[in-house]
Structures are given as C-alpha cells and as structure tokens.
Amino acid sequence: MSTTSIVDQLSEEVKGHRNSEAGVTPLFLNRWSPRAYSDQQVSDEDLTTVLEAAHWAPSSYNDQPWRFIVAKTDEQLTVFRGFLGDFNKLWAAKAPVLILIASDKLRENGDPNGAHAFDSGAAWGHLALQATLLGLSTHAIGGFDREQARELLNVPANYELHAVISLGYQGDKSELPEAIQAREIPNTRKPLSSVVFDGKVSN
C-alpha cells in the first residue's frame, strides 16, 4: 500500500475490526501489531528512516533518553532471539530486524530523569507509525529476559530496558503456529469515554 493510501484510507485488513469514534487519520488505525513476517529483508535505508523518526520524538529538556540496540545480522538476531520469552520465540524468529528500546535513567548532569520511560514510549510510537508509512509491520515484545539481555548486549546499569521491537514485512498468518493464528487480526479499543475524564476522574 502506498503512503497516500495508508494516510487516506483504511486498509482492507482493518475494515470491520477497527472503527474510530472520531475522524482520525487512517494511519493510526492501519498501524497494528501482527506476528507473521515474510522473508523479505528491510533495507538499511528504511531501517534508518524508522530510527530517525523515533529519534525526533519529544522529550523532557530535549534529553533524548531513548537508546536503540539493533539486530539485523544472523549472528545478532540469534543473540536477541535467545533472550526472548518462549511464546515470543514461536513467532519472532522470522522477523528480519529486532530492536531493543532502552532509556537512560540519568540526565547528562547525573540527575535522575523522571521522564525517561515516558519519552521513550513516545519514540516507540514514532517508530511504529513511520514503519507503517513504509509498509512495514512492528510488534512490541515485553516478554524477554532483561538481565540476560543486559549481560549479552553490554547494556550499562543506568539504562532501563523496555521492549524488543520486531520489524519487517507482514507475512502469511498460516505459517504461524496454529494457536497463534486466531490472534492475527487487528484488535479494537475500549470506548473513548472509558479512558477520558472531564475535569476529574469519575467512579
């Protein structure tokens, strides 16, 4: 699908599954988190574009606390797959790129940065939307062994590890384990009224 189509109209895949209560740009509905990946490789140019978009997220005092550790070679991917949880190993093995998102908990002057995780979440959102515009799929993986990842990837103690992001072109869900295939559809959202409060939190 072209960039224009992604921004201007819903994909066939999300029709019937996702309906917004307000007229948001279809880009936000077209972004979802599949688990099936094809064998098509992600170009270095597209990978750089995705990471560049993430790097332009807003951050407190412009500290830019996010850090991206990228695996794209067979050797690197083998290491990353080794610290994924068992369920995620079942489907993430075909993803051609894995990105560990971390954040520096300290500001440059050594003070604690209370916004590091919040800001890195914004960077992940930018990354996911830019990937969608390029026709790529992403899925955030929270199920992984953080201590093992820290040791294997030589991650400093002041970096908090948040998620491993799979990146690639969507594949055929029939190639997924049967138990996962039924979950390979765009999910929905709660009513907006259940998460938005007017003036104060209501019971």
UniProtKB/TrEMBL annotation:
Keywords: Oxidoreductase
Pfam families: Nitroreductase
Keyword Methyltransferase among UniProt keywords: no
Presence of the UniProt keyword Nucleotide-binding in the record: no
Domain Nitroreductase residue range list: 30-76, 88-169
Top-level taxon of the source organism: Bacteria
Family of this protein: Belongs to the nitroreductase family.
Protein name: Nitroreductase family protein
Species this protein is from: Paenibacillus filicis
High-level lineage: Bacteria, Bacillati, Bacillota, Bacilli, Bacillales
